[in-house]
Design goal:
alpha+beta; nine-stranded mixed beta sheet
């Protein structure tokens, strides 16, 4: 620890670390502590992991390479030790990783065009809140640098996703990511492109990123959310993996109710600038006999009225639309939208996800609108011999 920070300070020290922690091997460059990543079980079939993306962060790196090595080795060993019991791994990343790019904005904020405005700020205090008081740089640029999608983190981001795909394929475990920080709701996904012809239930590259924040922070302006939605392009991580946001917001929350104003443009179905929270739970019950049921009228494994069979689902040409049966009808009409009953649409060991979005910020009761979709479990056994090059 930093001796200066310890001066005249009492620090509680533990004799033995919690076994849930995966502790980095060396202190961070600015925060002189070792990173604390985490892994734990959430019941029999689910596990939870989190990457400490702060302690080792600089402008040009998020985590040390050796920290990633330690993290993935530990997770892989513990998944192997479960002997197939763990079917779903929920990964916590503080900042979204499947998110629209804003590199053009980064380029503008770093360009000489900002020079005159910076001079006026320094001399006359113009645009005071636009610049950081510590280093004189644009304050928004610091937020953009924080994102995995920032230009300087592009290589590290790609390597992280490819290692997650490798982990999912090796252990036949679905990996889903939960993120926040951006003060709006959205759902990003990585997935095998159409050329691979792999259904989501067998696609180890299908990694959804549930973005939910924040329950107290003020959301961004509508114009910012609409701009992000317009930047919702189909990006190519590599020759086999694409990514884009799911168009889950089929309508504004509380549309038509008295006193409720639209949160986003009518053509924005990908980002929702409103306070929100997420509910994530298993899609099916595991009863004593080992059979799966969704708890809704006795239906099992996706047999929800009006949804049909997974095998009959045809993926769309536009991947912003549902990629599998669990995403079909995503939004307010999805069986998972209320966050109360299990839908079974994720099949055995899948997940139901609900985003509860605030309707009216002036409502002291905090009424919300639900948007739902389901995540299928992964069965990648038939593909274990493929994709060694990545």
């Amino acid at each position: 620890m930093d001796s200066v920070q310890l001066r005249d300070t009492y620090v509680l020290t533990q004799g033995e670390e919690d076994p849930c922690y995966i502790i980095g091997k060396k202190p961070g460059p600015y925060v002189e502590e070792k990173s604390r990543n985490i892994y734990c079980r959430l019941g029999k079939h689910m596990a939870f992991a989190g990457i400490d993306a702060r302690t080792e962060r600089t402008r040009h790196q998020i985590n040390y390479p050796e920290t990633y090595d330690l993290f993935f080795k530990t997770i892989s060993d513990r998944l192997a030790a479960s002997k197939g019991e763990i079917k779903h791994l929920m990964l916590l990343l503080g900042v979204p990783i499947a998110y629209p790019r804003l590199q053009w904005l980064e380029n503008i904020l770093q360009s000489p065009l900002i020079g005159p405005l910076r001079f006026l700020n320094k001399r006359f205090g113009i645009a005071g809140s636009f610049f950081n008081q510590f280093d004189g740089n644009v304050d928004l640029l610091d937020d953009l640098d924080d994102h995995y999608t920032a230009h300087q983190h592009k290589k590290e981001r790609k390597e992280l996703i490819l290692r997650l795909q490798d982990l999912a394929k090796k252990h036949s475990v679905r990996i889903s990511i939960l993120s926040g920080d951006v003060h709006l709701a959205a759902v990003g996904r990585f997935y095998s492109n159409a050329k691979q012809n792999i259904k989501a239930e067998h696609d180890w590259r299908y990694i959804p990123n549930v973005i939910s924040s924040a329950i107290t922070n003020k959301p961004p302006p509508t114009a910012v959310a609409n701009l992000l939605a317009k930047r919702n392009k189909i990006h190519h991580l590599d020759s086999e993996t694409d990514e884009t946001l799911l168009e889950i917001f089929n309508q504004n929350p509380g549309v038509g109710e008295p006193g409720v104003k639209p949160k986003s443009a009518e053509n924005n179905h990908a980002t929702m600038p409103s306070r929100n929270y997420a509910i994530i739970c298993e899609s099916s019950h595991h009863n004593a006999e080992g059979a799966m049921s969704n708890g809704v009228n006795g239906h099992t494994n996706g047999d929800v009225v009006g949804y049909g069979d997974n095998a009959a689902f045809t993926p769309p040409k536009n991947p912003r639309e549902p990629l599998h049966m669990g995403e079909k009808g995503a939004g307010t009409n999805h069986p998972a939208a209320q966050g109360i009953n299990r839908t079974g649409l994720g099949g055995a060991n899948g997940l139901d996800v609900t985003l509860r979005v605030e309707k009216n910020p002036s409502d002291n009761q905090g009424h919300t609108q639900g948007y739902g979709f389901s995540i299928p479990a992964l069965e990648s056994g038939g593909y274990k011999g493929q994709g060694e090059k990545w």
